[in-house]
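Hi V.,

Quick status before I head out on leave. The structure for the redesign project is tokenized and pasted below; the design run finished overnight.
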């Protein structure tokens, strides 16, 4: 396996992560996951802009320019000879003796590698089941930070109940999924939580909103309640790995007739077309 370390591509065996790396000890870092189709990174500019924003919000200096990073991501995909996969990138504040304040001496470290991925088209046709659970995360969910315990615990709870996703709520307001953004459809209008500090500003979320608008579907970025989920005509989630995926059951209650809905299916088709358009050679 090849690994990108700052702007060098190395064999995994030659990569050493310091015991006192702040990513390891404090979760002091950020990440991105980019889907690759047809050997081409999908919506790479948007992922790079979000990486830059996360870094800025945490006062973290990226060790590589975005231009160089894009070249290296492409080189990694080519050298690994991959067509459909995803790229994981993370940047930590680097290694220093374990004290909370930012170290003066540490140098940020970027690592990246290819992960296996297969667009889950079977789930897209069938839909997934979700539970709801309290959103116990911090108040800067807009930063794609390495601190994922709130999401890990929620996803684990979903899996233990035979479900694929946990939909999070603060009081009664639905925020997002443990690793996805959540939409409901009611009377032909899409609703999703506004892109503020309580959710990750998903790149797939943004693409779905743009596609919906192109299809003349009304979109409201307005918070909605847990009850609205149960009573929605359709529910779907969006994310880099899951793309656009229907949710047919929430807390064991069928959404609509318990089958993927028409608005969701129309958006899925538009999203597949977007992938082909954007990643054609
Ligand atoms: N929300 C959370 C909490 C996530 O972890 C993710 C995926 N990383 C998303 C939403 C979806 O974001 P994107 O479409 O950019 O993958």
């Amino acid at each position: 396996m090849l690994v990108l370390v700052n702007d060098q591509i190395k064999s995994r065996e030659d990569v050493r992560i310091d015991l006192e790396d702040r990513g390891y000890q404090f979760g002091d870092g950020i990440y991105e996951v980019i889907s690759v189709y047809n050997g081409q990174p999908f919506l790479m500019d948007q992922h790079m802009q979000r990486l830059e924003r996360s870094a800025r919000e945490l006062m973290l200096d990226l060790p590589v320019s975005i231009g160089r990073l894009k070249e290296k991501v492409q080189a990694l995909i080519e050298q690994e000879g991959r067509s459909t996969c995803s790229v994981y990138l993370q940047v930590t504040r680097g290694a220093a003796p374990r004290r909370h304040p930012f170290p003066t001496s540490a140098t940020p470290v970027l690592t990246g590698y290819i992960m296996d991925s297969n667009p889950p088209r079977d789930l897209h046709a069938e839909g997934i089941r979700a539970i709801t659970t309290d959103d116990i995360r911090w108040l800067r969910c807009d930063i794609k930070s390495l601190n994922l315990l709130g999401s890990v615990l929620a996803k684990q709870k979903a899996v233990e109940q035979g479900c694929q996703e946990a939909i999070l709520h603060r009081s009664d307001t639905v925020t997002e999924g443990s690793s996805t953004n959540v939409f409901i459809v009611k009377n032909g209008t899409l609703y999703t939580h506004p892109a503020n500090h309580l959710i990750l500003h998903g790149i797939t979320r943004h693409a779905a909103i743009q596609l919906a608008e192109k299809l003349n579907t009304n979109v409201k970025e307005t918070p909605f309640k847990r009850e609205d989920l149960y009573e929605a005509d359709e529910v779907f989630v969006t994310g880099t790995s899951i793309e656009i995926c229907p949710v047919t059951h929430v807390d064991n209650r069928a959404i609509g007739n318990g089958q993927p809905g028409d608005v969701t299916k129309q958006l899925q088709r538009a999203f597949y077309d977007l992938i082909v358009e954007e990643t054609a050679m």
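Above is the designed sequence. The mean pLDDT is 97.

G. will cover questions while I'm gone.

Best,
W.
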